[in-house]
Amino acid sequence: MKVTKTNLTDVLIVEPAVFGDHRGFFTESYSAEDFKAAGIDFDFIQDNHSLSTEAGVVRGLHFQKGQSAQTKLIRVVTGAVLDVIVDIRKGSPTYGKSEGYILSEHNHRQLLVPRGFAHGFATLTPNVNFLYKCDNYYDAAADGGIAFNDPELGIDWPIDIDKAITSEKDQKHPTLKEFESENPFIYGEI
Question: Catalytic site residues?
Answer without folding.
Answer: 62, 132
